[in-house]
Structure formats: structure tokens, C-alpha cells
């Protein structure tokens, strides 16, 4: 029997780990994560994963899996075709056992696209939905937060509109105050064992989001080092980034001691 959210929250906190492989999911659960955010392409900030990945992951872990609905990297202004893809992905992920969904969309002037979000939330019911770090690109965070509350998002993932949650801490603190428990504020972005305590104490949040990854060398013996599969800024071909059990455990222990 997997532990319910209230079980986890009885510890005073909930750690969400973003994962893009079954190995990372297993490691995150073993290390004490309370929820997974499932994506592909963490290098691009996380995109919609395959249904196959969700299905296999469901066989290996018991904790809730929230699936990213994001059809491409880049901005959060979506075309009609991209919206069609998002709707189809929502249906697929729902029917294959997603426990929640993660999404977000903005208008060209940097506001929450309330019309589109309303449509996507309706398609997502009855699953809980987190609004992702598209929030960090908004023009006015206080106004955007009210939009998310009235739309009915359960949770907001944010770095406080800055390069990392530590840099964005002052805003995260203000958002928590403004939210007054109407929506869960979950800091994420560059959270490590070195800064987690400061972020939790400084923000007053009880949930946090991290990747807790370390690089594992590829098992390939033969290597062609003159070829890369992605753009020049892509990850090294022969280094795999995987959630690290001991990193997850350490973050878990820090959160326990802090809260």
C-alpha cells in the first residue's frame, strides 16, 4: 500500500523529484521522495514523456506520478496544433494511470492564458494539476497567482521568477503569504543539499521540487567521440544523469530536520 499524501505530509514536508527514467524514479522513491514529476528531456526543462515510460514506471514505483504536459521546449505560447497535441496527451496520460498532471500556458504579453488553462484543466479532471515554471516568465507574479487560484490549480512550481529558487526566495516568500493556503507553493530550480534548508526556512513552504541527480558514466565500451546526437549545447553522449538515492536521502533528512 503506498503511503497517502496525508501520511507524507504528516512528516511536515513533501519532496517531489523530477525524473526522466525508470531508474531515476526507483532511486527517488528509495531515497524518500513523496511524489514524482515525470518528464522527458530534463535538459530542455522537461517535456511530455512517452506513454510507455509512464506505464513501465507505474510497475516499478508506488508513489504518485505527476506527468508533464509540454509539447516542446522554448516559450509557453502555444499554437492551435500544439494545443491539440496537449489535449491528446492529457487524455492518454489520464487513461494510463497518471496521478496528476503538470502544465502551463501564457499569453504573448506574459499573462497566464486563462482561457487555454481553463480548457486544459477541464480536460484534466478529476486529476490534480500543477502549474509549472511557465510562471517564472510572467509579467506580474501577484496577478498571475490570483489567476491560478481562481482557475483551480492545486499547486504552483516556481523559482520565484529568478534563475534559481535561492535567488527567487524573496518572491517565493511573498507568494506563500499571498496564497494563504488557497494554492500550494512549491519552490524548485537549483535546489541542492547546500541550499535546501535556507529555502525551506526562508519561504515557509512545505513542499519542494528537485532533481537530485548525479552523472553516471555510460556502459559503452566502444565510443565515437566525434558525433553528438543533439545540438552543440546538448548533454555529453556518454554521461547519464540519474536521480541519486543518497542525494535524495540527504535532501529528505534536511527537510525533516528543518520542518
Q: Can you tell me about this structure?
A:
With about 260 residues, the chain is α/β, with parallel strands linked by helices. Helix content is about 35%, strand content about 15%. The strands form two sheets. The chain has an eight-stranded parallel beta sheet. The chain has a two-stranded antiparallel ribbon with strand order 9-10. Strand 4 (about 100-105), helix 5 (about 115-125) and strand 5 (about 130) form a beta-alpha-beta unit. Helix 8 (about 195-205) runs parallel beside helix 9 (about 245-259). The longest helix has 16 residues, at about 80-95. It is globular and about 55 Å long.
Low-confidence stretches: 1-9
Order of helices and strands: HEHEHEHEHEHEHEHEEEH
What is the count of helical runs? 9
Number of strands: 10
Indicate the structural class. Answer: alpha/beta
Please outline the major beta sheet. Answer: 8 strands, parallel
Rg calc: 18 Å
Query: What is the end-to-end distance?
Result: 25 Å
Strand order of the largest sheet: 7-6-5-4-3-2-1-8
Beta-strand percent range: 15-25%
State the helicity in percent bands: 25-40%
Spatial shape: globular
How confident overall, as mean pLDDT?
A: 93
Amino acid at each position: 500500500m503506498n503511503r497517502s499524501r496525508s501520511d507524507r505530509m504528516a512528516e511536515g514536508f513533501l519532496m517531489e523529484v523530477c525524473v526522466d527514467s525508470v531508474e531515476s524514479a526507483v532511486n527517488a522513491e528509495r531515497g524518500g521522495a513523496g511524489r514524482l514529476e515525470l518528464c522527458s528531456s530534463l535538459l530542455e526543462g522537461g517535456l511530455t514523456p512517452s506513454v510507455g515510460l509512464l506505464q513501465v514506471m507505474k510497475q516499478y514505483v508506488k508513489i504518485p506520478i505527476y506527468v508533464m504536459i509540454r509539447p516542446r521546449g522554448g516559450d509557453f505560447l502555444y499554437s492551435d496544433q500544439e494545443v491539440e497535441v496537449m489535449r491528446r496527451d492529457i487524455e492518454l496520460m489520464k487513461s494510463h494511470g497518471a496521478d496528476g498532471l503538470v502544465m502551463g500556458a501564457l499569453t504573448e504579453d506574459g499573462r497566464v492564458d486563462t482561457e487555454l488553462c481553463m480548457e486544459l484543466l477541464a480536460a484534466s479532471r478529476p486529476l490534480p494539476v500543477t502549474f509549472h515554471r511557465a510562471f517564472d516568465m510572467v509579467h506580474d507574479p501577484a496577478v498571475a497567482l490570483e489567476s491560478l487560484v481562481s482557475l483551480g490549480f492545486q499547486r504552483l512550481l516556481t523559482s520565484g521568477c529568478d534563475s534559481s529558487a535561492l535567488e527567487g526566495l524573496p518572491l517565493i516568500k511573498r507568494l506563500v503569504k499571498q496564497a494563504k493556503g488557497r494554492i500550494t507553493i512549491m519552490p524548485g530550480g537549483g535546489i541542492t543539499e547546500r541550499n535546501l534548508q535556507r529555502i525551506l526556512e526562508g519561504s515557509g513552504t512545505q513542499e519542494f521540487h528537485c532533481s537530485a541527480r548525479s552523472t553516471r558514466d555510460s556502459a559503452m565500451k566502444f565510443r565515437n567521440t566525434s558525433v553528438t546526437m543533439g545540438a552543440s549545447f546538448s548533454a555529453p553522449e556518454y554521461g547519464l544523469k540519474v536521480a541519486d538515492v543518497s542525494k535524495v536521502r540527504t535532501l529528505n533528512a534536511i527537510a525533516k530536520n528543518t520542518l
